[in-house]
Amino acid sequence: MNTDRIDRIDRMVAVCFVTMLVAVAGMFFDVWRLVYYAIPVLTGLFMLMGALDKRDEWRTSVVAPVAAFGGALLVLFAIADACCTRMRCSVACPRRPARSST
Fold it and tell me: pTM value?
């Protein structure tokens, strides 16, 4: 087994790591969208990881539905974000209370 090469799963783990770093930065700096959009990205990545076979390859018959689901999930998250921002819904998207000047 050649351990010098970086295979597909190694790259996907690296992308998961970067996605989690972005989400942690969003938590630290209180930017909720960075945390919010990490959810569909990680869901798609984990599903793609699960679709890999023993030879570190994907079959088109498996990847197409997984990619479609991941894309649809990301679009639904974007629509929910747009609706929440437009409606200023306080239950689904809590906002910080305005600071009083006193």
Answer: 0.73
